[in-house]
Amino acid sequence: MSRQDRRSGPDPDRVPPSFSVAGSPSAESPVVQFAAQLRLLHGAAGAPTYDYLQAVIRRKNSALAFSAQAWSDWLRGKTLPSDLRLITLIVDHLHDRATRRGHQVLSARELVTLLAEAKNIKRVDRGTTKTAKPAPLRVGTMPRLAEHFQNRMMTSDFPDALIEAGTGFLSGMGGVGKTQLAAYLADRLWLNGQLDLLVWVPAASRQSIVGMYAQAAVDLAITGATGADTERDAARFHAWLARTDHRWLVVLDDLTVVSDLRSLWPPSSPYGRTLVTTRLRAPAMSGPARHIIQIDPFTADESNAYLHNHLAGAESRDGSPVDDSNLPHLAADLNNLPLALAQAAAFILNERVTCAEYRERFADRRNRLDDLVPDPNDPGGMPDDYHLTVATTLSLSIEAADAVRPIGLARPLAQLASVLDPAGIPELTFTTTAARNWLSAQQQQDTSVETVRSGLQVLHRLNVATVVSDSVTMHGLVQRATREALADDDFADVAWAAADALLESWPAVERDTSHGRRLRANADVLRQLAGEGLLAPDPHQLLHRLPRSLAESGNPAGAAALLDSLHADARSILGPDHPVTLLFAHDSAGWRGISGRPAEAVEAFERHLAQTVRLHGPEYIGTFITRGNLARSQGEAGNPAAAVYALKKLLADVERALGSDHRYTLVTRGNLAKWQGHAGDPTAAANAYAGLVEDFVRLLGPDHQDTLTTRLDFATWLGEAGEHESSITAFKRLHAEAVRILGPDHPYSLTARHGLGTQLDSSGKHGQAVSVYEQLLVDRLRVLGVDHPETLATRNNLAHALGRTGRPVEAAAALERLLADVLRVSGPRHPHTALVEQSVAYWRSRAG
Questions:
Q1: Alpha-carbon separation of residue 798 from 211, 445, 507, 843 (angstroms)
Q2: H/E element holding 285?
Q3: pTM for this structure?
C-alpha cells in the first residue's frame, strides 16, 4: 500500500485506542446493531481503508465491486448491503484479520444473520409486507458447512429459475460435496430472509422421507397431524405445500431411489422451491421447472485453494512447512474429489508428513485395495473414476488411526459402523460387552469402555466418522468403501457382531422413544445390508426384537408388515417350510390381530395352521399353539362363542397328546376360561381359574410366575362374576406376595395394583380407586414410560374413576388428553382409540 493510501484512512495494522470488542449487542434494532457490529469488526481488523478492501475483493472475485460511498453508508447504518456474496467476502476477511490480532468478535455468520434481520425490518418499514407471517421455521437437521467450505463459482451463478421457484437437482457421484452445496444454498436463502419454512429431509429411503414430512406436519400444527400416522401426516404436509402462501424450501438430501418420492414430490408452487441432492442421472428427474445441475469435483484451482487453506501452517516431522508446489500434484492424484482431499489433508496434519511423502504412500497402496466397480443394484449407477481414490484415501486414514493410541482399534470400529445407520449410531452400541468382546478378539487384547471412546475420537479427528454427543455418524460412501474392503466371511462376522451389540444395548422397556427409533433404524439398516447373514443357518434374535419393538412403540401394524418382509426373505433363502419362515408368518398374524385387524389375523392363522399340519401333523406342539392363537383371534374378531368351541376341542386334543399336567394344557384351560367369561359366563370363568390356581401351585409352586399370572386372572374374573370383595381381597394378597417375590416395580406387582383399583371402582369405592390409580400412575410413568400401553390404561381407568366420584369435567379433560396420546401412539383406527373417543363423549355429556 502506498503512503498516500495510508494517509487516506487509519493504519490497517493498528486498532484505535477507543475501540472495544467486548461490548454485547444492545436492544437496538438489527439495522443499528448490524452497522455497530460492522464498525467494531472493522476496527478490530485494524480499520483497513476502502481502497485496501476493494483490492482484496477484486482478487477474490473480479466480478464484485462496491463504492466508497456505499462502504461509508454501511458503516453509518444509512443503507444495507444488497449483495450477500460481497458482504460475506468482506466480513470473512475482516474476521480473519481480527482473530489473528487476538480479538474476540462476532463470527461472520452471526454478522450476516444480523444483516438478514435488518433487511427484513427494512422491507417492513417500506410497507412491502402485506400480511403477517409466522416466525421462520426450520425442520430437520441441516449439516453445518465444512470448516474450509469452498464457495464454488457455481454457487454464485446458481440458476435464477431455482432461486425464484422450481426444483433443482444437484447430481453427481458420492463425495463431490452435493450436500455441502445444498446446505450453502439453503443457508443463503434463509439468511437473505427469502424463506418462511426450510425443511431438510434425509432422502435415502422412503421411510425417512415420510418420517420427516410427518414431522414437518406436526411442527407446523397442520390440522389432523398428530404424529400417530406418519403416512397420513406426510400426505397432509404435501397438500399444505401446494396451498400455502408461505415461502418454503424443501431439501431432499441423498435421494437414492426416485420411486421413494411416489406421491411425495414437493408440488409446483410460486412460493416454493425444492432442492435435491442425488447420485442419480435418472430421466425421471426431468420435467417442467426442474433443473438438473451436474456437480463435478473441484476445479484444479479450487482444489489447490482448499489444500492451501486446510494445510496452512502445517509442518512435517522435520519442521519443514508444507511444500505448496506439491499441492497441485496431490490434488491431481486425488482427482480433485472433495472427500478424498479432506481425508488426505487430515492424514497429513495428523501424521506430520510432507505432501511428497503422502503421494508416495498413496501410489504404494493403490494396487493393494480391492477393485471397486459400480453396484449393479444401485438405481443410478456410479461413475468409475473416483471409487479407487476414495477407498485408497480411506485406507490410509484408517491406517493412520490404527497407529495412534489405542493402537489397532480404528479399523474394527469403522467396520462396525459401516453396517449401521449412517444418520446416527448410538455410541452405547460400541461400548456394549458384545462389541467390546468382538473388538478384543480383533485386537487380541481386552478393550475397555474408555478405550473404545478414545478409538471413536481418533476416527473423529481423521474425518473417518463424526462423533457428536452420544451419536456416531459415518458418510455412506465411507461406509460402503469399508464394507467392500471386507472379505465375505469377515463381513458376515462384522454384521453378526453389530447385531449382538444392538441387541445388548436394547432396553427391556423403551422409556426413551427417540432412542428406540434410533435403535430400530440401525437394526433395519443392518438387516438390509446383512441379508441372509442374519437369517441362515439360524436367525439372529435381533430379527425378533426389531418387530417387537416396533409393535410396543405403538405400531403393531408396522411390526406385521416388517414380519411379512422377513417372511418373504426367509421363504426365499431358507424355503417355505423352514421353521424360521413359519415363525415369521405366525408372529405377523399375531401382530395383525393386536393392531385391530383380527379378521386378517384369523385368515393368516388359518393358512399357517394348514401348513403346520401338513408339515408336522395334528399333534405337533406348534400346531396346538397355532390353534390356540386362531381361537383367540376369532374371539377378538367378535365371535367369543367360536373361540370357546375351538378351545374346547383343542383342550381335549392337548390333554390326550400331552397329558393333563403339561404346561400348554394348563395354558389352554386358562384361555378357555377367559373366553367363556367373554362369552357371557364369568362365573364359569372364575370357577375354572380357581381349579387352575390349585394345579399351578401343585405343579410349579406358589411363587412361580405362571402361578402368579393365573392368580391375577382368577382375581379378575371373581370381580367380573360380581364377587367384588373376594376379588379385592385376592388382589391385595397377590400384590403383597408379588412384592415379596419380584419387587414393587415388577410388572406383576403393578398389574395387581391396577386390578385392585378396577375392583374398588366396580364395587362403588370410587374414591379409594382414584387413590390407587393416582399412586400407580406415578410408578408406571417412572417404570414403563409415558407411551406404554399399561400406562395409558391406568390413565383411562383413573379418568373414569374421577368421573364416578362426581367430577365429570375433570374426567372429560383427562380423557381428552389421553385421546391425543392414544392417537399418536396407536393411530385413529385402533380399537382402543375408538373406546377412548366414546368415553370422551360420555363424560362431556355428563359434564353438561
A1: 33, 55, 28, 13
A2: none
A3: 0.53
